[in-house]
Design brief:
By secondary structure, the chain is mostly beta strands. It has three helices and 23 strands. It folds into two domains: about 50-190, Sandwich (Immunoglobulin-like), CATH 2.60.40.10; about 205-420, Immunoglobulin-like (Sandwich). The protein has helices at about 5-25, 40-45, 225-230; strands spanning about 80-85, 90-95, 100-110, 120-125, 135, 145-155, 160-170, 175, 185-190, 210-215, 235, 240-245, 250-255, 260-265, 285-290, 310-315, 325-330, 340, 345-350, 355-365, 375-385, 395-400, 415-420.
Length: about 425
């Protein structure tokens, strides 16, 4: 009986379907992962608030491993950050070469999502061995708080160091923190060459006796009566720190809200001051004030910086004052060095008080960048230079209040001065 062609067609189709089904049954099945009981679907796709900066990578750059999918950024969005917190407070002290981790926690208060193409970048100042940039590997959406980290190394020389950092968009535009998103954030450290140094409110006693300047509401008149206004607190300058000298000195300090007043009497058999003043005035009979205006802030810093002052005062050429008037010169901070105009009175003295010379000075607090407040303490050393060789410019010797003042550029060797209220009674 003839076979029905249509039946043959359907039979062939059925066989083909069965063959395909056999091939599918031999392929490895595709695994589909669903959230575990403690990870809901909403939690699974949530963008973490600290996706970058929480754990530095082993390569030491501070780059963070990816923790979230990067979200696209709208072309017309805004980039702004808000400072939240940081590690390594300003002027934290480190020994030279110390490796440390600096972090800043910032909040995204703009409308852009910070993601791939964004970077933490060094802006200016001291880079301290850090990279030029650290690319983002995770996303920080608007409203999220994120911690950024970078490994740095304390420089080899003592001093204060500050480096400024910002964030950067994929287009290379930098931005920072409030109020307008243009302010950089920074790291500021003090490198100390003094192992084991712990900041304190005063210098150790081995740096010289603790000194006080007394407040006055009746400022002394220069040249009127030195003995009278030196009666409150008088200190002896007796530590021989350089060369040879037979000089001795006593001095007193008073203050008001405008000036620091100095009165000093020096015993000196031979007075020689034949410089022209200026930066060389120390090569003759003269006095010097060292003042650290941020004693606790950079207590462990063994190198002078912008808040440390070295002021020299010359009495002039006293045998003939008309040939050379008293003068003052500021050596440090180096950015401000140069002659200074202050009120100075000086004259030669003789027996019975003692042969030598005396000097009074009225020094404006503004010269030191200080707004004085009762109880404030400073790093301080007072010194007297001596020259006994006529027709020369020479620093033969120096005496000081600090026995350790052998190098003026090391504030840790200075003593302490505190400005106090006028005694009652």
């Amino acid at each position: 009986m003839p076979k029905n062609p249509l039946c043959r067609f359907w039979a062939a189709g059925l066989i083909a379907v069965l063959c395909v089904a056999c091939n599918f049954s031999q392929a490895a099945p595709t695994t589909i992962l669903f959230p575990t009981p403690n990870l809901t679907m909403s939690k699974l796709f949530e963008v973490p608030t600290a996706g970058f900066g929480t754990t530095p990578a082993a390569d030491g750059t501070g780059q963070i491993h990816p923790t979230a999918t990067i979200s696209p950024t709208a072309p017309d969005c805004t980039n702004r950050a808000q400072f939240v917190s940081e590690t390594i407070p300003d002027l934290t002290s480190f020994l030279p070469g110390t490796v440390f981790l600096k972090t800043w926690t910032l909040k995204n208060i703009g409308t852009c999502t910070w993601g791939r193409g964004y970077a933490l970048v060094f802006d200016h100042g001291e880079r301290m061995g850090g990279p030029e940039s650290i690319p983002f590997t995770a996303s920080v959406p608007p409203g999220a708080v994120n911690t950024f980290a970078v490994n740095l190394t304390a420089p080899s020389a003592g001093g204060d160091y500050q480096g400024f950092w910002m964030l950067q968009t994929p287009q290379g535009t930098t931005f920072g923190i409030e109020p307008d998103g243009t302010k950089s954030f920074w790291v500021k450290i003090a490198v100390s060459t003094t192992p084991g140094c712990t900041p304190a409110a005063k210098r150790p006693d081995e740096n010289g006796v603790f000194m006080e300047a007394v407040f006055t509401d009746a400022p002394p008149v220069l040249g009127a009566n030195l003995a009278t206004w030196m009666e409150t607190k008088t200190y002896t300058v007796s530590q021989y720190v350089k060369g040879t000298t037979e000089n001795g000195a006593k001095f007193s300090l008073q203050w008001d809200y405008d000036y620091l007043y100095l009165g000093v009497r020096i015993t000196d058999d031979t007075f020689v001051q034949e410089t022209s003043g200026g930066a060389n005035l120390y090569l003759g009979d003269s006095v010097e004030i060292l003042l650290d205006t941020d004693l606790e802030g950079d207590y462990c810093n063994a190198v002078m910086n912008a808040d440390d002052y070295q002021l020299g005062i010359s009495p002039g050429y006293l045998p003939a004052p008309s040939l050379q008037s008293p003068s003052a010169y500021l050596w440090y901070p180096s950015a401000r060095k140069g002659p200074r105009t202050i009120d100075v009175f000086a004259l030669l003295t003789s027996a019975p008080d003692a042969a030598g010379w005396m000097l009074e000075a009225k020094i404006p607090w503004s010269l030191f960048g200080v707004s004085p407040t009762e109880g404030k303490a400073f790093g301080f050393a007072f010194s007297v230079s001596d020259n006994d060789q006529y027709a020369t410019t020479l620093q033969e010797g120096m005496i000081s209040t600090s026995p350790n003042r052998t190098v003026p550029t090391n504030p840790t060797t200075w003593g302490t001065l505190q400005i106090i209220a006028k005694p009652v009674g």
